[in-house]
Amino acid sequence: MSAAAVVMMLIAMAVLWGGLAVAIWNISRFRGEEPGSVQRDL
């Protein structure tokens, strides 16, 4: 593989794994209560 392909692959992996890590961190630090029911007019 060329150097450009390797760099693009590393960037894509960093974005995907970073997004997964941030999502897990966000879920784990959520301490609030779920809303009972949401009433909205559309």
UniProtKB/TrEMBL annotation:
- TM ranges: 6-27
Keywords from the UniProt entry: Membrane, Transmembrane, Transmembrane helix
The cross-references to NCBIfam families, in alphabetical order and at most eight, read: MetS_like_NSS
Q: Which InterPro entries match?
A: MaAIMP_sms (IPR031596)
**Keyword Membrane found:** yes
Q: What is this protein called?
A: Methionine and alanine importer, small subunit
